[in-house]
């Protein structure tokens, strides 16, 4: 039930207070409500689940067929295993199917709604309504304290008291949606370690020199391999007027350290030198740019070939081919930075899992306190993994709060 904002003076009681009506908070509220707990969800925004609505280009990539712990980053890579194995992608797919929501698989096991992300949000809202969960919108939590009577939560709309408190406030990416780092900072103030956090699954910005060279390429997408010291990834990248985007640029941003060079292989399916050796025998009169253009978008071929573009394959000397080979296979891109929280899909880092139970998401420092979803130091790859973490961790806490 969505209720109007609270009158300021009244104090309300609940068994369970969930702060944040995003993916994790709604899931947790549903499960706790099914157990007969009196649950209230407090949400600062004017609507619940804004990130769900915005996700997957409006079609919500709600999970992935292949959910493995390797698809998640955390200082403790084992932490996510318990929750993910007890509430799996198949459990969520069953729920979606029970609600008659049509979905389809895109590349790499990613599951999307056929129609709209609204289907997922409406499903969760119907589920919490069916078990009597109260949802308070436009209610921002400002302070929380532990008293004899339980957790006392102050908001700009009044005070709530509850036995169990669930922090499901996510991370600060896309502040215009109402996202904050409040839960991370409050958790730290309660003695939980805060693992340094930053915007991730985010496009790169380029320095002016790169941007000038890339200007004619804006809007071009092509397969490439991006490498940083910790990882490489092959798939589509997109030149933008500000830098580099596309799924692979976003994926590698999870592993990139600020200041690090990203090496790009624009021709990931073969060795340019070997192919040039055989091509110069058979098509030696062809210009370099035409030859590169057989495998690469024409504008990219032009840019990579540069001054050499109009030379015939047979006329290129060894030094020129070596230089070209480095540019094509190991292009050194030094990002100026990233687009930051303005466009980032997630926050990498967050509250350390060290003092959290991987089975229940309960704080080991304070009884009756739980942290779920993105507020924790668990971040998924692009592809439905971050929602799966929200569903699984929400379920884990919902079973015990
Ligand atoms: P979430 O951010 O969803 O919810 C937190 C809630 O807490 C918010 O509603 C916020 O307003 C509220 N809140 C914060 N502070 C508060 C306070 N002090 N008082 C009260 N309320 C407060 N993932 C994926 O798997 N597939 C996808 O397709 C996408 N696509 C995508 C697109 C875009 C544009 C973004 C930004 C993100 C994605 N994601 C995604 C990531 C995914 O949306 C994200 O990981 C989950 O929504 C995290 O769920 P949580 O419930 O933890 O936080």
Query: Compute the gyration radius: what is it?
Result: 25 Å
Q: In the CATH hierarchy, what is the architecture of the largest domain at level 2? A: 3-Layer(bba) Sandwich
CATH level-four homologous superfamily name of the largest domain: FAD/NAD(P)-binding domain
Provide the CATH topology of the largest domain.
Answer: FAD/NAD(P)-binding domain
Q: List the domain count as a whole number.
A: 2
Helicity, as a percent range = 25-40%
Termini Cα gap = 20 Å
Ligand kinds: dihydroflavine-adenine dinucleotide
Shape: elongated
Main sheet makeup: 8 strands, mixed
According to CATH, what is the class of the largest domain? Alpha Beta
Sequence stretches where pLDDT stays below 50 over 5 or more residues: none
Mean pLDDT: 95
**Beta-strand percent range:** 25-35%
The tally of beta strands, per DSSP, is 22
- What is the SS-derived class? alpha+beta
Give the number of helices: 13
Q: Could you describe the 3D structure shown?
A:
The protein has 401 residues and is an alpha+beta fold. It has two domains: 2-199 and 345-398, FAD/NAD(P)-binding domain (3-Layer(bba) Sandwich); 203-338, Elongation Factor Tu (Ef-tu), domain 3. The chain is 30% helix and 26% strand. The chain has 13 helices and 22 strands. The protein has helices at 23-34, 50-54, 81-86, 89-98, 118-130, 182-189, 208-214, 247-253, 272-283, 288-292, 298-305, 318-329, 385-398; strands at 2-3, 11-19, 39-42, 61-64, 72-73, 103-105, 110-113, 134-136, 141-147, 150-155, 158-167, 194-200, 204-205, 221-228, 231-239, 243-245, 262-265, 331-333, 337-338, 346-351, 369-371, 379-380. The strands form five sheets. Strands 1, 2, 3, 8, 9, 10, 11 and 21 form an eight-stranded mixed sheet that branches. Helix 1 (23-34) runs parallel beside helix 5 (118-130) and helix 1 (23-34) runs parallel beside helix 13. The longest helix is centred in the last third of the chain and has 14 residues, at 385-398. The radius of gyration is 25 Å and the shape is elongated. The model has no long low-confidence stretch (mean pLDDT 95). Bound molecules: dihydroflavine-adenine dinucleotide. Dihydroflavine-adenine dinucleotide binds next to helix 1, helix 2 and helix 13.
């Amino acid at each position: 039930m969505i209720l109007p904002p609270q009158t300021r003076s009244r104090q309300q009681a609940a068994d369970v207070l969930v702060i944040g009506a995003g993916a994790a908070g709604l899931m947790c509220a549903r499960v706790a409500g099914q157990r007969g707990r009196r649950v209230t969800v407090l949400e600062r925004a004017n609507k619940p689940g804004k990130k769900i609505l915005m996700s997957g280009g409006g079609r919500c990539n709600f999970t992935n067929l292949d959910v493995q712990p390797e698809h998640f980053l955390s200082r403790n890579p084992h932490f996510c295993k318990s929750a993910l194995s007890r509430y799996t992608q198949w459990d969520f797919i069953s729920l979606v199917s029970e609600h008659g929501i049509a979905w389809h698989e895109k590349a790499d096991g990613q599951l999307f709604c056929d129609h709209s992300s609204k289907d997922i949000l409406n499903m969760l809202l119907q589920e919490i309504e069916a078990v009597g969960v109260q949802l308070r919108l436009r209610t921002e939590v400002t302070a929380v304290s532990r008293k004899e009577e339980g957790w006392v939560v102050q908001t700009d709309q009044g005070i709530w008291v509850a036995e169990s408190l669930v922090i499901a406030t996510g991370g600060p990416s896309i502040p215009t949606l109402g996202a904050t780092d409040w839960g991370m900072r409050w958790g730290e103030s309660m003695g939980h370690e805060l693992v340094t956090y930053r915007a991730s699954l985010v496009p790169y910005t380029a320095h002016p020199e790169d941007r000038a060279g890339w200007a004619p390429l804006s809007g071009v997408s092509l397969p490439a391999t991006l490498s940083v010291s910790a990882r490489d990834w092959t798939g589509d990248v997109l030149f933008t007027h500000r830098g580099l985007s596309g799924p692979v640029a976003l994926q590698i941003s999870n592993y990139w350290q600020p200041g690090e060079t990203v090496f790009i292989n624009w021709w990931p399916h073969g060795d340019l030198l070997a192919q040039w050796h055989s091509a110069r025998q058979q098509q030696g009169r062809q210009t370099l740019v035409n030859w590169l253009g057989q495998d690469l978008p024409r504008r990219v071929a032009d840019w990579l070939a540069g001054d050499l573009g109009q030379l015939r394959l047979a006329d290129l000397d060894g030094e020129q081919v070596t230089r070209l080979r480095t540019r094509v296979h190991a292009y050194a891109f030094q990002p100026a930075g990233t687009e930051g929280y303005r466009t980032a899909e997630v926050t990498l880092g967050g509250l350390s899992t060290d003092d959290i139970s991987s089975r229940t998401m309960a704080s080991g420092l304070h009884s009756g306190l739980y942290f779920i979803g993105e507020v924790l130091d668990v971040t998924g790859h692009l592809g439905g993994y971050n929602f799966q973490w929200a569903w699984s961790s929400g379920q884990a806490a919902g079973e015990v709060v």
